[in-house]
Amino acid sequence: MLAISALCCILSLSSPDVHLTLEQQIAVLEEAQHAYDRAIRLQTADPVASKESFRRASNRYQILVDDGIENGKLWYDLGNAQLQSGEIGEAIAAYRSAQRFMPSNGRLVTNLEYARSLVTNPMRWEGSTSILKRLAFWHDTVPTEIRLAVGIVFWVGCWTLVVTRFFILIPGFKTVTITLGLATLALGVSVGADFANQHQRNGVLTAKEVIVRKGNSLQDAPMFQDPIQEGVEFDILGVRSGWLHIRLHNGREGWIQLEDAQIVSLDEFVKRG
Q1: Domain range holding 73?
Q2: Of 153, 170, 197, which marks where a domain is finished?
Q3: 120 has a pLDDT exceeding 80
Q4: With 80 as the cut, is the pLDDT of residue 55 above it?
Q5: How far apart are CA 44 and CA 66, in angstroms?
Q6: Are residues 179 and 220 in the same domain?
């Protein structure tokens, strides 16, 4: 059972244009949690029944999302239920949506990375981007608020040394100030990237197999010999008549049908009918 405070927090952030009453929202949320708890209990004794119960929980959480509720905890719970029921693409999209509200949540980051590890051929660029990520590993492992706090401390420390240098001689002044300045810049860029990422137009493939085409019609030739599997993430370059113009993380561009993907963006961009 969810804590009462968490329940109230989720429901208080619902859209004013909802179709369910407050009592109905609470009932649906309780059904979802009961189904999820039952699925956990059955995982060892009855895996088939457990998976079906996870699907029921996922369905109930999705009802609340579709009703206009936007909350990181709700998206996170939806992602967990979808992952347990084998819906990898939907789970990644839900976790990505949850990150818009709680980007530094450790459990969320762990679950998202695990879901991504289940994707067949994620279409990632294995060149310089991969090397850059290894060099800046702390960007994904250290919470945003901690990076921001450390950056502020470094920035204050750097300027404190500069002001103090006018009055006294400081050994290693140049080395220390340059180091602090570069560290502050790196942390500032890292935090800025987190905030910018919240407003990027991107998405996740949710259909089991998706054909990426060279144009926005079924008559256009496929970009690849084989369909792409669910869970592959992409950036959105444009939208036209039920089609998305996308860029995959390996740099290739193409068109997919809107119904084959889920949009992940904090901004109003595409509403699926």
Answers
A1: 4-86
A2: 197
A3: yes
A4: yes
A5: 32
A6: no
